[in-house]
Design a protein that fits this description.
By secondary structure, the protein is of the alpha/beta class. Helices cover 38% and strands 16% of the residues. The chain has a domain of 80 residues: Nucleotidyltransferase, domain 5 (2-Layer Sandwich), CATH 3.30.420.
Length: 133
Amino acid sequence: MVLRQPRPKLVLSLTPLIDVVFILLIFFMLASQFVDWHQIKLTPQAQFAGAVSEEQTSSLKLLNDGSFMLDGQAVETVQTAIAALTSQGKGGAIFLEPDNTVEIQNVIDVIEALNGAGLRKVQLSEAAGRAAP
């Protein structure tokens, strides 16, 4: 009677599998987006010129200390300015004029707050006394 030799056990190494999973993890981490990117709608200068002649405009100045001037009147927060704009029916065009040293993120936050309140016609304008490039 012929006896069979037992087969040697097959050893499976998990190292290549772990390497592949790690590479896939890195790939998907680099390929995915963690930030919700979106655009801010600003009215182009040419379209805004037509809106100025047809609608009532407001001037909102963003000061360095975080306060605002709405048509020459001091306002503390952007929510107060939005409430004043909507209550007076000034839903038309808005000129947003940031001071020289106001951070761009603060300007974007104000634009997003205005857009969120339904005030879509926002135009950035240069601060008074700022030299044009």
